[in-house]
Amino acid sequence: MNVTVYLPGLTTIAMSSFFIRHPHEPVNAFTAVFDSYPLNFLSVIPATVGLLFLMSAHAISYPWAFRIVAVFAFAGAVLAIVNPATIFSRIVDGLFRDISDRTHRLFGNIFGAVMITWIR
């Protein structure tokens, strides 16, 4: 089950490292995906991420942290399906358009490294 921890950890580190070299291309790609596909279809992504974190929670030293991330991912999936008053669209705009590329890189490198170091 350690593979389910290595996969999101290394993916997060790789994505944030890509932000170092190309700061605006990933943001443009993510916003294009959110603009072109309906949110009901895209709600599968956070649900899958939440399931992955929930399955791999027992393989790390602090399983409560992965369970909290899983709950937030499931809440994001439900919010994407329901989308009251276009709140999910405003959250996506805030995450991809309003946050600087330095914040994305910092969060990705720290979160990915923490995931990998917490493996038992």
Instruction: Report mean pLDDT, rounded to a whole number.
Output: 82
- Classification by helices and strands: mainly alpha
Global outline: globular
Topology, number of strands:
0
Largest sheet: none
Task: Give a quick summary of the entry.
This protein is mainly α.
Structure description:
- The chain contains seven helices and no strands.
- The longest helix is centred in the middle third of the chain and has 20 residues, at 63-82.
- The chain is globular and about 40 Å long.
- The protein has 120 residues and is mainly alpha-helical.
Keywords:
120 residues; mainly alpha
Topology:
Elements: H1 3-21, H2 25-36, H3 39-42, H4 44-55, H5 63-82, H6 87-98, H7 101-117
